[in-house]
Amino acid sequence: MTFDAILDLLAGICLLLGAFLSVAAGVGLLRFPDALSRMHAATKPQILGLMFVVAAIALSARSWSTLLALIPVLIFQMLTAPISAHMVGRAAYRTGNFDKDTLIVDELESVIDRASRDDQPASDDGGARP
Amino acid sequence: MTILDVVFAVVGVLLTAAALMALYRIVRGPSLLDRMIASDMLLTTIILVVGAEMVYNSHARNVPMMLVLAAIAIFATVAVARYVSKQDRQEKPS
């Protein structure tokens, strides 16, 4: 078995792991009950799955220029994925799109209560506004 | 049929299944946020498919496409999330 064949096999294994993460996120999207837990499942392939696929491309292309072009893909995804997850989670909390019984602790509720008690009317978002 | 062909076939089946599950959640999702999460996940699956295709055909021409998709995936989600919060604030005045 040559070195090239080993690298190709490693790339295939990385692709398999990325696809497995993606399908796990799909199953979570189908089975989980509310928006917050669905978001938890759906964000798994966004970073780790993309890292596996980028590693697979780098292993199969085997050139420095491709690697240099692939790193910004990861950087952009790592910069933007937390922002969108934050916005969706905030909107899910504010619209009540989650099951309160499944929460162990809700630290945001007391903060919102305190802010809406000792503030002017237009502050029902409790400082959670970015 | 080598072992790599089997690997690529399995990868294709898994990614197709993930995209179909995200599509089901977009169609059926009870709330707007569920649909947005599912469409975000569908876009992630598309990025993964573009990358897997590059490995399968052993070229690197689609890297700019991955770059643009990864950079602009945020816009739709953020815009819709803002819209949902505003609508909620109008419904429940304090």
Question: Briefly, what is this?
Answer:
The complex is a heterodimer of chains A (130) and B (94). Chain A is mainly α and 130 residues long.
Give a description of the structure:
The complex is a heterodimer of chains A (about 130) and B (about 90). Chain A is mainly alpha-helical. Chain A has one domain. Chain A has helices at about 5-30, 35-40, 45-60, 65-95, 105-115. In chain A, helix 1 runs antiparallel to helix 3 and helix 3 packs antiparallel against helix 4. Chain A is elongated and about 70 Å long. Chain B has one domain. The longest helix of chain B has 29 residues, at about 65-90. The termini of chain B are far apart. At the A-B interface, helix 1, helix 2, helix 3 and helix 4 of A face helix 1, helix 2 and helix 3 of B.
Give the mean pLDDT of chain A.
Answer: 85
The SS-based structural class of chain B is mainly alpha
Largest sheet: number of strands, sense, barrel closure of chain B: none
Structural class of chain A: mainly alpha
How do the helices and strands line up, and which of them pair or pack?
The complex is a heterodimer of chains A (130) and B (94).
Chain A: H1 3-31, H2 35-42, H3 44-61, H4 64-94, H5 107-117
Chain B: H1 3-28, H2 32-57, H3 63-91
Task: Give short descriptive properties of this protein.
heterodimer, A: 130 residues, mainly alpha, 5 helices, 75% helix, 0% strand, B: 94 residues, 3 helices
